[in-house]
Specification:
InterPro entries: PcG_WD-repeat (IPR051243), WD40/YVTN_repeat-like_dom_sf (IPR015943), WD40_repeat_CS (IPR019775), WD40_repeat_dom_sf (IPR036322), WD40_rpt (IPR001680). By secondary structure, the protein is mostly beta strands. The protein has 7 helices and 28 strands. Strand 2 and strand 3 form a beta hairpin.
Amino acid sequence: MASQTDFQKSFLLPKVVSSFIIGTETDRFNVYDVKFYPYFDPSNTEPVFAVVSQKKVYIARLSAQTDCVITMLHELEDEQELRDGDSSGLNSCSWCYVHQDQPLLALAGGSGQLKVIDAVTGNQFTTLIGHGHGGINDIATHPIFPWIVATASVDKSVRIWDLRRQSFRHESHTIIICGQATGHSEGLLTLSWHSTGRYLITGGHDHLICVWTIPDLAEGSSFWREIGPESRKRSSGEVHVIHFPHFTSSAVHHDFVDRVKFFGDLVISKAAKEGKIVLWKMTGFDTQKPPPSPVTAPKAEEHLDTRNGFMRTRTRGKNGVETVKISPEYEDQPPFERMLEFDAPNSEPFYMRFGLLLPSSDYPELHPVLAFGNTTSEIRFWDLERLALGYSVGLSPNKSSPVKKRKGVASKANRASIVSQIVAEEQDSALRLLQACRQHDRLRQGQPVKYQMVRWRMTKISQFHYQIVQGFLLMIRTSW
């Protein structure tokens, strides 16, 4: 059994190691997104990251030396955005690949095009068109299949793309469309995958949060046969359309929903002007069970502020007629349960994104950490694991030890088992926090919990736009 000292050492708080400012001709430089490359070799101690501004993309490497020198690998200009003075520019990026030795960076913004570049050469890999004149506000790469990318658009829809189809001229890169006329009523601002890859969650200008059930995208699944040329009878059949989400609610937030993420089977979300981040649970949502049938998805004519298909079940009567109704175990339960609120002051503007750091195959012992920055350059961190364990555990912000790193490169053979392990670890962390919320009234009411949060005032980057929030791991290399 671990000693109390070892137990405390496992709680690692971030420390400022390095910061830098990108040169610009103006006194205000907008950084909308930043992402570390997640597929690196564990033996590589120099992480690579990408920074997205309105007109430019920067790809850089962080030195492992004590002075943490940042080396700029590419500084790329988007010629289309530079020519179009009316465009809102780029706003999102996501790492992906078709072949692991060719890292790709997907970019999007006001043009509505998904632009993919080769991160090694800096050259264009492909440009995908499908959202029409609707700009793209967020990108998310599938957690298991890095060649699958989802985009959230102003045109009210989600598109899921398969980058492998770049090699097949006559096949559509779009494989799935969610909504467009039957989901969100206004433009989307955010989307995120569940760690199993079977669900997408979205939020938008309509104050709505939707959860979409996604088909199994593994090789050999029936999905690929259904959209393949052997099965489709018309060209439109190569794109699978999901008309209705299994969950939709406008009751969680009352303004623009600009950030949503799964944490296990829980959800963390925020909206503009509310000054808080909310942790909540959908009743009946359980990824340990098979995904629900499309038949149980609530239809748009059901005029409720919250519609939850995860509470429904299909039954067949003696006459053979099939009906859909609320499962008996959920008859007396609300469609969702608000668990906890995190105080997030000075966050009135919309499109301010929080970050969620989760355990990975390389750092399985890492605690899940929620981070959010506001308009005053203050960055707040919450260790969700420590929060779940209660109030008795204390740790000085100046005392921490390195996280144990898993050595060796995962082979394709054991990739699935590693993914399953990480999903299970995330689920366990979320379950512990859920149980803690239900046991401690103080916790559920959002009152202060000892050591639950660390605050930083980043005066050196005060000239940066508030939308640096998503990039907190770039501006301050953290020592976890």
